């Protein structure tokens, strides 16, 4: 059976977010849903997978709440269940940046539709920034985009403070996987005095879905946080696997490297492989 993978988020004040956990968890369990949903005072975020009917049931349940009536989501298909379990968690943030002045419920940048994105980033006066982490950027990004080389989204504010200047970067275009990190990032940059901050609505996933391959400015594949590892244009499954030791996406070329040993190490983690860790990984493989 083909499964539907639904990615969703919405920033909205949820003062009763803790009370929403159990009803949502119970429904997902009843529908055989797997994946993760995060609830916080600032909203909801998550990716879930299940049958067509199960996904529709969860989305209908959420949209019955007036605060989620206009909840948008993105879909792709999977031949096998991409998640091992179901989690509905309470968090302080639905995407963690760690600074209080990054609140999309207060202010947010200008949304740019996928079909208008090419024209924006082709403007030489626009600084294009990939807000994702370095391991995600390593397998694909937009032509000419800056890579902040962050290991976690918490490092993005420091990158802005040390590498960007509102007086120099007059126009900034941000993008991320599904759009949620850009909302936080744009809110933070506006609070720092940047005036013209744009972000790709629906993220890379929407762009890959909506923009024809022959018109695309995307290069490579897009990392996703499930067992598919990466997707391509049209949201077709990508070609990357994941290192079972460090979690870094790996290509066929990486697997041909002498530094690659399935389940033990890859070119990205071989330098940190101690003998103790090697033995531990070998035992896990057995």
Automatic annotation (TrEMBL):
<dbReference type="InterPro" id="IPR040503">
    <property type="entry name" value="TRHO_N"/>
</dbReference>
<feature type="domain" description="Rhodanese">
    <location>
        <begin position="122"/>
        <end position="216"/>
    </location>
</feature>
<dbReference type="InterPro" id="IPR036873">
    <property type="entry name" value="Rhodanese-like_dom_sf"/>
</dbReference>
<comment type="function">
    <text>Catalyzes oxygen-dependent 5-hydroxyuridine (ho5U) modification at position 34 in tRNAs.</text>
</comment>
<dbReference type="Pfam" id="PF17773">
    <property type="entry name" value="UPF0176_N"/>
</dbReference>
<comment type="similarity">
    <text>Belongs to the TrhO family.</text>
</comment>
<dbReference type="GO" id="GO:0016705">
    <property type="term" value="F:oxidoreductase activity, acting on paired donors, with incorporation or reduction of molecular oxygen"/>
</dbReference>
<protein>
    <recommendedName>
        <fullName>tRNA uridine(34) hydroxylase</fullName>
        <ecNumber>1.14.-.-</ecNumber>
    </recommendedName>
</protein>
<dbReference type="InterPro" id="IPR001763">
    <property type="entry name" value="Rhodanese-like_dom"/>
</dbReference>
<dbReference type="InterPro" id="IPR020936">
    <property type="entry name" value="TrhO"/>
</dbReference>
<dbReference type="Pfam" id="PF00581">
    <property type="entry name" value="Rhodanese"/>
</dbReference>
<dbReference type="GO" id="GO:0006400">
    <property type="term" value="P:tRNA modification"/>
</dbReference>
<keyword id="KW-0819">tRNA processing</keyword>
<keyword id="KW-0560">Oxidoreductase</keyword>
